[in-house]
Amino acid sequence: MLHYNSRHMHHDNGIWVSADDLNREDKFLQSAEREFSLENVDQTDGKWEASRRDFLKILGFGLGAATLASCEIPVKHAVPYVSKPDEIVPGVANYYASSFVNGGDYCAVLVKTREGRPIKIEGNTLSSITKGGTSARAQALVLGLYDTKRIKNAGSVANGEVQTKEWAVLDREIKAKLAENGNIRIITGTILSPTAKKALAEFTVKYPNTRVVSYDPVSSAALLAANEQAFGIRAIPSYKFEDARVIAAFDADFLGTWISPVEYAVAYAKRRKIFAARGGKMSRHYQIESHMSLSGSNADNRILVKPSEQGAAIVALYNELSGSSGGPKLNEKAAAAIKKMAEDLRNARGKSLVISGSNNVAEQLYVNKINELLGNLNNTIDFSAPSYQRQGDERQLAEVVTEMDNGRVSVAIVWDANPAYDYPDGDKFKSAFAKVGTRISFSGTMDETTALCNYSAPKHHILESWGDAEPKAGHYSLIQPTIAPLFSTRQAEHSLLEWADSANLNRNDEQPYYQYLKSHWASDLFAKQTKFGTPAAFWDMSLHDGVFEMPAAARSVSFNSAASLDASAVTQPSNAEIEISFFETVNIGNGQYADNPWLQEMPDPITRTVWGNHLLVPVEYEGKKIKGWKGLIEGDVVEVEVSGKKLTCTVTPTFGQMPGTVAIALGGGREKGGSGTGYGVNVNGWTKVAGGLVQYAGVANVSDKTGTDALYACVQHHHTMGVQVQEGDKKVNADELEFFEGALTNRSVIFQTHAKELEKMGEKMEEFHAETTHLNEQTLYPDNKDYFGTGVKWGMFIDLNACVGCGACQVACVSENNVPLVGKNEVRRHHEMTWMRIDRYFYGNLENPRVVYQPMMCQHCDNAPCENVCPVNATNHSMEGLNQMAYNRCIGTRYCANNCPYKVRRFNWLDYTTADLWPGNEEKVFHANGDDKPFYADNLVRMVLNPDVTVRTRGVIEKCSFCVQRIQEGKLTAKRENRALTDSDVRSACQTACPTGAITFGNLNNPESSVNKARKEAGVFAYKVLEEINVRPGVDYTAKVYNSNESIS
Amino acid sequence: MKDNMTGPALGGVEERWSAFPKKDLYSWIRNSQALVAAGHPRAVEVFNQYNKILMNSFTGLSDDEIASMLLYIDAQVKGGDKPQPGAGGAVALEDTKKESSTPWMFIAMAAVLGLLAFALMRIIDNLGNVTRVQAGEQPVRKDWTQSLTSKGFIAFLVFSLILIFGYKSVDNATRMQRQQGYQPTQPINFSHKIHVTQNKIDCQYCHDSARRSKHSLIPGANTCMNCHAAVKKGTISGTSEITKIYASIGFDPLTNKYIDNYDNLSEKEIETIYKKWIGSEYMSANNLTALDDSGESAVNEQWDGVVKALKEDSNGKIQGPIEWVRIHNMADHVYFNHAQHVAVGKVECQKCHGPVEKMDVVYQYSTLGMGWCINCHRETEVKFKDNAYYQQYERYHKELKDGKRDKVTVEDIGGLECQKCHY
Q: In this complex, do A91 and B184 lie within 8 Å of one another by their Cβ atoms?
């Protein structure tokens, strides 16, 4: 194996997208050469071959049918309200403040409703936790409401089906069982709601044999335990990433999935944006891990340690800082790197932050001690308003499983948990659970655990529920229903209170739990605050704002000296040849979000695969040829054995995966439930338990290739842009290149530089701009400055330094613009429809590269190549600088898509949204769960569609419109109010979804607009992608700046 | 005006006061309480009869004004002049005249051209023969059949047929799904003429979201009830139409109260309530104390009308919304916003919807075709100077100031662009 050194990189601007790119594989070059690869032009999967005769037949039928269809116009009705509610104006959206809560995941949101239907989630800027940011999971919330596979009635469960029962009958039967005085166990996830806890307390008073146990799908129990031992507080502190000059994260994906990623991303980005970089305020981020997490991909330095070396790495840092020695042995390279990192941390005393995602108490105690040594306690680590977003402890669940196994539990209630899927020893749980006489599930969908229950008491979807949450001490957040319950479901809290015969539940009220919640706020929380004089005012304002925050008293902590550090209790390094780690992805979690097709079809930020989890293996190279470990390539199938259990996995070789390790995401292989069933493999059985705590790592045995996954769907090579296939008249051959070199190296797609070389980079950028300006001025056509100079001219600015790649914008775009879902097989065939993609580019060291994410959507070029090739003028330019797309004019030649340098146009190969007049065009496309109907075929699912955006039919091109419906609405508001347009009138869906403020949108003709200010701030570092080709895009990007410690190789 | 409400009906007030001097009635109208206090017998009687509800004082009214009001009331109750047709009708007539003259002009032109073509053909033939004779050949005399089967003629025929069919196909294709003049029967015989022309109700009183939403909105029954809680009988239809509103929302006109738990009543119970109302009105109109046979059948007929209008196929219920037939159907891929046109553009409703104020039954006035939209956008001037929003169009403002431009049309600010209406 050759040693490859990044310092010898031929171009400073070297970037690559994949191994195939570096290898200059034919299939990669082809995908870049052609918009549509030939294999995929076969739209019908060979099912249907048309002869000339068939063509004539269909033509004749078509003409006849069209004539018939035009004869009679169906009578349409207009049905007004009987009594129109004051607050609803049909055609105008209402926004209600609410909260997204799923176990410990929390986000303050606004729910957009149209005519009483929730259709979109926006962030709530009044929350000091999420500050208006959202996550992909929060954005996808609305789709779950309209899931056709929701449980629609209460009932008994048999053979995985609910046999409907009246709620009254169910209540009677369950109450009889509860009254038998046996042990009752309630298994839940983290409960953020104080009122739900009150309801549980009432239940426990009525049935004193009750015990409530909480566990999290991905555990943080060690962190809680360590904080309790070290600081006496069993909670998670506020991590002040905005104050941290040096961040060291040990396997904690704080930007993607760890505890409160939206909150952390908002804070983190403050020290990452281009102005922070230019002002010398940029933070330095170390990530210590084996597989590339979302946070790792954003890090300046990644220190590669095997999963089993995490403890050793933490102890090594502690030793370095405290001057002690001993502890487990760490690989030399990492040990050297940690030494240098320690120096950086020490220099940023009180202004650094060390965190760990480990589920080992001893390791977390070390981390707490390290933070104390660094003076971070009470500075970047603040306990004045601790977070309750993880409360679970799986050791309690294990106790309950033992109890159940011994037949000592008579009633088990499962609420917001799915242990039959995510318990490490699933079989043990199932057999123990079967011994419980009465098993009740509150789940709204038929998941693995509900299928094992004998009663289903389905809860409302959160958008139909009342509720509250206390994600951080003193930070209250309300959940209010934005639609009447669609099915005969009932709030879980209501069920508990009903079964407890609660005197506080007014059963005669239309919404009993609403009254219960309100009275809890009036009796309990009202007294704790001073801002409002009456409970009514307190309630009304809190409901209006969605959040109520009490000022937190400063609370300082110190490390309890009784909490001893024990180097022998940390994870001990293993000698195994291959280690495996299990991680959580931003979209699916540990299976909680698997039923949401929007999230399933959102490509994973790093691997860019969809629908299912894959075994990530490191890349290796021989000569100039890069391959996965063991010669595996993407889509290969292998047998993997971990602790004696074998599973068949599909492989994705991934840059940044440490040699000698593999990794696989949690959350795949759901067996029961909705749309996510049957994708990927369930690896929860591979996790092991140490000291009662689940360890997300192990030792693996990986076979050689056993086959190929025919459904492997990865969007990496779809819509590849800017590739130079040839140099002169010769195809570029990787073997002849002096160094590894991506095909985009010489194109102006990404610019990146080290923070200390910013000035030099500035000069280079200036030169580059001068060159492109000169190039672009050589044109026969007149300038359009005058044309665009009056009125509004829309433009966007994207700070690649702020973009962490979380994907919230992608899901927001799908939600806002009715972007079709196509299913795994269609994605495999390059048919994904997303208007916005987040391109992921690697740069730097081949073995341990850094990543830059580039959100890419229609660039709205003023000199657009797509516009002048359209034979029917279906795409053309507006004087506001929009590249317009008139779907009903499009005849589907796809010339525009072929001519688009950014590859952002999408073609409706099939009738994905069933918008077509001819039902015969509904192809069996959506291979989810044996369900062949197109995803939006069901009228229930169609309720999620945005009525302001046309649903496109088969055979037309579509693409980003800069959210033209929002533009029109914003302009109209300004006109109606007789005033000038402001920034806040028009904000694109991706912009509002973004937690870090990476995307700015606005009027370029207004010098005061935020988009102009952002561009000005970026100065010469602002550039247009492929600036040299003179298409004059409306979107600007910034050069990516990294701030690595260069002394670490 | 004809019925007793909070107070007695206005109609016939002079007759009821005829036993007293005219000035008594006048001072009653000006200040009723003074008359009550003075112990005027008629005044006290009326005051007590109507639950001692105070009538507003209008001390500023002159005798002349009161006299005119009484005249107006009299005319309204006994039936005054019919409303005059407006100037619009005359314009419309002229339009049709113009249109009818065009085809004749074309036919005349076609005839002239045809003759000309025929003459030219003859000349060509003759010239051909002249040359043939000069060359010593036999002149060819084509008879009619020969001319009509000649290559040239058939080619001409085929060409013109293609032209005509092509034109017709395209023309018909563009008109597909358009329904100008569509005038369906509605569940309620609602007359815009009565409400707008006679009663002078503003369009946006009922269609109140036209100024703030993309939809103009068909008003809910509760909006109707704002007036019809008091106006219980129609000018033309009597109880037959307005009862439909009551049956939709659950208002009992006999007790002036909304019916409790209306949603859960059976059809029989509803029938009893409203038949009683229709019957009582029939009786009072015909001075009966009990329903006669024709009254019975009139009540049944009206009730059948209510059922037909309101009964929903899906749940078989009378209660609930009135299902109007939608007249103006825009294609799904067209985004049209009323607020933009009404609140910002200040376009009169009639510009697109036609003389609705003259329609007893509404029909679709315009084509609602894209050409029609585009034409208007080309011609319509933007309220450019009045709205601060348009200040950003600096170039246009400058051109207006410099006299280089006399107006800014919708087209000038991008009103013809695809994505103003299609997205």
A: no
